[in-house]
């Protein structure tokens, strides 16, 4: 629908919304610099970016019709569009030692997505199919097949999704494919069990075979990347002891309490708190020694976290970063830290007088 056919009151509502937000932000900036300048980037900017992302979603039809399509370009699902006519490069460089490859993955379809709201929902048959389909994609696409660490929300639907994507049903063939050796591991021992076999419970849980930990991959559960806390029972996790018994190959040591101390009936986590939690999680990822990491998490958590980034980018790039995740969707991003934290750069060669002699290498 063209902009000439837009209801005037809706366009006016958009203008009023943006004007009010900008006025509020200017006032906040003035006061914050005077009182607590150190909190500017860690609090107010994230709130402002979150609100602008919400405006873009709510008024997407108006913004699309009133934007320069040639300059802005489309936002294809795969993020690879032809260069728009008015393309202007926005280049950046970062030493590789201050970057990590992160595969952000939303869980497959859970029973709560199908309208069956049970505590800590499991995957539906379709959800398992989605996880297995993504597994094939991950194995056949570099750098996806170089994952060293899988960080997973401690809820059942994310644990099952992580197992469905990265777990292996045939540990012997997986080990041979990874190492080219005949043994199932370096010492010939059976690989660790990632997920125990589970039986079917009608409208609650799908039967699935036992899965093993693939060679060279670690699994860690982290509460910082769980779903936004809300009134729905599907977001209430079960005790860690129960989850760990089902997933012996996952490290649950970072979760402080056995029972879920965060979820409460009727409680809704504030948007700003989800953003803050997301930033803490990304900061934790930066401290990890691994450089190729998969994160299996939830749609609302991803949206509130990722909308803090890319707002200065061209529309195709921004929307590929901030677009709402579908079930079992995976997007690979580069997480960088210009603050100086990083890992040793194994690709660096000193050159000059410090370079090792060729006859000594």
Q: Which key phrases capture this entry?
A:
single chain; 361 residues; alpha/beta; Rossmann fold; 2 domains; 5-stranded mixed β-sheet; 11 helices; globular; disordered N terminus; His_Pase_superF_clade-1; phosphatase activity
Descriptive report:
The protein has 361 residues and is an alpha/beta fold. The protein has two domains: 3-66; 96-336, Rossmann fold, CATH 3.40.50. Helices cover 37% and strands 9% of the residues. The protein has eleven helices and seven strands. The protein has helices spanning 8-35, 40-58, 60-66, 69-72, 125-140, 156-166, 171-179, 240-246, 271-287, 299-306, 315-322, and strands spanning 99-106, 149-152, 193-195, 211-212, 218-221, 292-297, 330-336. It has a five-stranded mixed β-sheet. The protein has a two-stranded antiparallel ribbon with strand order 3-4. Helix 1 (8-35) packs antiparallel against helix 2 and helix 9 (271-287) crosses helix 10 (299-306). The protein starts with 7 loop residues before the first helix and ends in a 25-residue tail after the last strand.
């Amino acid at each position: 629908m063209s902009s000439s056919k837009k209801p005037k009151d809706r366009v006016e509502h958009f203008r009023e919304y943006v004007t009010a937000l900008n006025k509020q932000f200017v006032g906040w900036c003035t006061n914050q610099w005077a009182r607590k300048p150190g909190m500017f980037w860690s609090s107010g900017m994230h709130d402002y970016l979150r609100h602008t992302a919400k405006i873009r979603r709510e008024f997407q039809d108006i913004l699309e019709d009133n934007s320069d399509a040639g300059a802005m370009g489309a936002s294809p699902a795969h993020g690879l569009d032809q260069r728009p006519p008015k393309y202007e490069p926005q280049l950046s460089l970062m030493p590789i030692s201050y970057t990590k490859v992160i595969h952000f993955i939303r869980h497959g379809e859970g029973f709560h997505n199908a309208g069956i709201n049970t505590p800590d929902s499991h995957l539906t048959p379709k959800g398992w199919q989605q996880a297995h389909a993504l597994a094939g994609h991950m194995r056949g696409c570099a750098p996806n097949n170089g994952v060293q660490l899988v960080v997973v929300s401690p809820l059942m639907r994310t644990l099952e999704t992580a197992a469905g994507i990265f777990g292996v049903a045939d540990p012997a063939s997986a080990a041979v494919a990874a190492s080219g050796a005949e043994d199932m591991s370096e010492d010939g021992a059976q690989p660790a069990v990632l997920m125990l076999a589970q039986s079917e419970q009608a409208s609650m849980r799908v039967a699935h075979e036992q899965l093993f930990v693939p060679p060279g991959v670690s699994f860690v559960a982290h509460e910082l990347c769980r779903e936004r806390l809300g009134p729905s029972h599907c977001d209430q996790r079960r005790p860690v002891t129960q989850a760990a018994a089902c997933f012996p190959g996952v490290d649950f040591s970072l979760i402080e309490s056995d029972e879920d101390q965060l979820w409460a009936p009727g409680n809704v986590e504030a948007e700003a708190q989800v953003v803050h939690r997301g930033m803490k999680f990304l900061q934790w990822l930066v401290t990890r020694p691994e450089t190729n990491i998969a994160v299996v998490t939830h749609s609302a958590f991803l949206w509130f976290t990722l909308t803090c980034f890319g707002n200065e980018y061209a529309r195709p790039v921004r929307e590929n970063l901030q677009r709402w995740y579908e079930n079992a969707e995976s997007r690979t991003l580069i997480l960088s830290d210009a603050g100086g934290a990083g890992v040793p750069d194994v690709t660096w060669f000193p050159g000059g007088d410090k370079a090792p002699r060729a006859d000594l290498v």
